[in-house]
């Protein structure tokens, strides 16, 4: 089947829904394609809040937020993106409130704000209350609110459609191909502009907060075209996932006063970040936890976790502002945070890297200003490099609304100015070939077993602490896994709702993301933000104050070509010199 | 048909916890080849702290690749994996094995009721979302917005705490006997969504929504069976919220 829209949005999470809403305001026809049903995207899992310098509780300024973002990102953050972001997010939060989002409130009836890791006043002097929240289900409320607004706007949704290919010719995007789960039919979508907002790829790791559906599909499709993925080595582990399960426990838990303790009950963050202690940024807290565990001070049977202690907080705070995580601890661990210490460990959480874009979401085709006309990206899938080497807590929800909005506006403006591009001959050929291969393989390999090996090896070799030897080994492991993947065959011949076929396809996408990530990480011989190398322990601004651009070598299997892009070290009105990161 | 397997485990519990030997009975149906649904039993080994979804995933990944169901977040926030587990509507990712079976026991898994089964545990969600859309599920306030937020007290915000907690999983609506019998009834989930806006002090479309609730597909169909409240995986007091909407319709205001 063939469809035609001025603007197509892929993904119905926060970024996609915001982009769709704003594209629709631009008087163009808009459709949103999602592999899930609406409201089931992973934005809903974000708990803690959305940071904006509203100053509702304490004095705050966008310059302080910009500074925290840049410093938190270990100076790899593009400062022009950080400045635009820190200013725009204030209006964006008010706009969400005007859309009806039920924020928690201050006693004066304003949007409530609380502390969060890395949020400071006066350029790092002390913690500040900047995170706007709706209990501890802020992402859930953003997702619901934006979907509601799209229902109001009459946005067309294609639910449970899996994008299988992007159509790009002569540097211009022409549309895409998608597989309709309910019929097994391939659809061609012809478009003037396409916005990619399909989320992250945390499922390449064994312990992750990410949904089963976060398999990096569109990143991989982009990469398969010989187009670059930026800064893939920067992958954030959230310090507090429920032990062994990886289910996210919001940073709001520390913002409300939760304390991390090792096996002897020591508040160990006092040693690692004496000024802001448990409220240090995520990379620092994650490494501190792993260091405690490695040095034998972990808790639990395997001594591979630490505890978060809420027992000194009032019951009404735990069951009110932190109800979501209280429920998770009770459901999954049989523990009650009101009286029990809850075991946590770092969990793979957020991709700082992804499809490179400019400030309007337009996709970049290289490190020197080339673009893909008509193709935009926003949200976790994109890398405008707001987050640099480590994302500040609450900036993911902010990123969605600020850059989702900018991409939606830019795509609609572009679509109003241009004619439809030509469609290539045989637009569905690549997708048909992909499915043919999966249906007619040699049949000796099990996709689930390959996926498990991928997740375990990535966790071990490209996790929180990294070194050249393990990552070189991982390059070889990935080659083997890709060879095994060629032997996967889908056994279910049915056309309708063939979820076996979809899972097999997703595994191929994950293998690509892992390849780009491992090559980028092995290449960067320094430690910065979330990328921490045991064999190159120092940050090296002389050689490495630059973004990685990883390209698949289309002429040589398993080969990744590495290029670079300069970091924007200045904003429009402010600039922060790289300095050592101490808290 | 019975098949045997190794363990399905992903639970955080130690090796010293004894594994449970389970039979998992799944109601299967593929309209492309089956005239009617049939039960298939799988033998599975699981830890007590495993989620039922872990067990079902294990069956799909290693025993029966064609088994079809929805799932995504794995921790009760996306609402994809609502199914009938041991006769009750639940989210498979929020239901632990130890809470529904003992070693040697059986777990039964069926699709939620009242919506057309498309394949195995996967149902057609369109009628459910049609009901959702029918209640105008979006904030309406046409007066000019202030530069900053609209002021709302903590108490007023708290009025929405329960109803805004809904994840649209359909556990409530598909456990409602009225909905099974009369598919035109909007059902508990849609009424909860209406409540969320009716009791929002900032919203200006209260009367329109009360009008929708007063129609014969609306709130008066509810016979207070409490199934919805029992089925809700987020502990929303749905029956209570429906009663509040009834009262608002009766007295014409929220």
From TrEMBL, chain A:
<comment type="similarity">
    <text>Belongs to the FAD-dependent oxidoreductase 2 family. FRD/SDH subfamily.</text>
</comment>
<dbReference type="Pfam" id="PF00890">
    <property type="entry name" value="FAD_binding_2"/>
</dbReference>
<protein>
    <recommendedName>
        <fullName>Succinate dehydrogenase flavoprotein subunit</fullName>
        <ecNumber>1.3.5.1</ecNumber>
    </recommendedName>
</protein>
<dbReference type="InterPro" id="IPR003953">
    <property type="entry name" value="FAD-dep_OxRdtase_2_FAD-bd"/>
</dbReference>
<keyword id="KW-0274">FAD</keyword>
<dbReference type="InterPro" id="IPR037099">
    <property type="entry name" value="Fum_R/Succ_DH_flav-like_C_sf"/>
</dbReference>
<feature type="domain" description="FAD-dependent oxidoreductase 2 FAD-binding">
    <location>
        <begin position="6"/>
        <end position="397"/>
    </location>
</feature>
<dbReference type="InterPro" id="IPR014006">
    <property type="entry name" value="Succ_Dhase_FrdA_Gneg"/>
</dbReference>
<comment type="pathway">
    <text>Carbohydrate metabolism; tricarboxylic acid cycle; fumarate from succinate (bacterial route): step 1/1.</text>
</comment>
<dbReference type="InterPro" id="IPR036188">
    <property type="entry name" value="FAD/NAD-bd_sf"/>
</dbReference>
<keyword id="KW-0560">Oxidoreductase</keyword>
<dbReference type="InterPro" id="IPR027477">
    <property type="entry name" value="Succ_DH/fumarate_Rdtase_cat_sf"/>
</dbReference>
<dbReference type="InterPro" id="IPR015939">
    <property type="entry name" value="Fum_Rdtase/Succ_DH_flav-like_C"/>
</dbReference>
<feature type="domain" description="Fumarate reductase/succinate dehydrogenase flavoprotein-like C-terminal">
    <location>
        <begin position="451"/>
        <end position="583"/>
    </location>
</feature>
<keyword id="KW-0249">Electron transport</keyword>
<dbReference type="InterPro" id="IPR003952">
    <property type="entry name" value="FRD_SDH_FAD_BS"/>
</dbReference>
<keyword id="KW-0816">Tricarboxylic acid cycle</keyword>
<dbReference type="Pfam" id="PF02910">
    <property type="entry name" value="Succ_DH_flav_C"/>
</dbReference>
<dbReference type="InterPro" id="IPR011281">
    <property type="entry name" value="Succ_DH_flav_su_fwd"/>
</dbReference>
<keyword id="KW-0813">Transport</keyword>
<keyword id="KW-0472">Membrane</keyword>
<dbReference type="InterPro" id="IPR030664">
    <property type="entry name" value="SdhA/FrdA/AprA"/>
</dbReference>
UniProtKB/TrEMBL annotation, chain B:
<dbReference type="InterPro" id="IPR025192">
    <property type="entry name" value="Succ_DH/fum_Rdtase_N"/>
</dbReference>
<comment type="pathway">
    <text>Carbohydrate metabolism; tricarboxylic acid cycle.</text>
</comment>
<dbReference type="Pfam" id="PF13085">
    <property type="entry name" value="Fer2_3"/>
</dbReference>
<keyword id="KW-0004">4Fe-4S</keyword>
<dbReference type="InterPro" id="IPR036010">
    <property type="entry name" value="2Fe-2S_ferredoxin-like_sf"/>
</dbReference>
<dbReference type="InterPro" id="IPR004489">
    <property type="entry name" value="Succ_DH/fum_Rdtase_Fe-S"/>
</dbReference>
<protein>
    <recommendedName>
        <fullName>succinate dehydrogenase</fullName>
        <ecNumber>1.3.5.1</ecNumber>
    </recommendedName>
</protein>
<keyword id="KW-0560">Oxidoreductase</keyword>
<keyword id="KW-0408">Iron</keyword>
<keyword id="KW-0411">Iron-sulfur</keyword>
<feature type="domain" description="2Fe-2S ferredoxin-type">
    <location>
        <begin position="22"/>
        <end position="113"/>
    </location>
</feature>
<keyword id="KW-0003">3Fe-4S</keyword>
<dbReference type="InterPro" id="IPR001041">
    <property type="entry name" value="2Fe-2S_ferredoxin-type"/>
</dbReference>
<dbReference type="InterPro" id="IPR017896">
    <property type="entry name" value="4Fe4S_Fe-S-bd"/>
</dbReference>
<keyword id="KW-0479">Metal-binding</keyword>
<keyword id="KW-0816">Tricarboxylic acid cycle</keyword>
<dbReference type="Pfam" id="PF13183">
    <property type="entry name" value="Fer4_8"/>
</dbReference>
<dbReference type="InterPro" id="IPR009051">
    <property type="entry name" value="Helical_ferredxn"/>
</dbReference>
<keyword id="KW-0001">2Fe-2S</keyword>
<dbReference type="InterPro" id="IPR050573">
    <property type="entry name" value="SDH/FRD_Iron-Sulfur"/>
</dbReference>
<dbReference type="InterPro" id="IPR017900">
    <property type="entry name" value="4Fe4S_Fe_S_CS"/>
</dbReference>
<comment type="similarity">
    <text>Belongs to the succinate dehydrogenase/fumarate reductase iron-sulfur protein family.</text>
</comment>
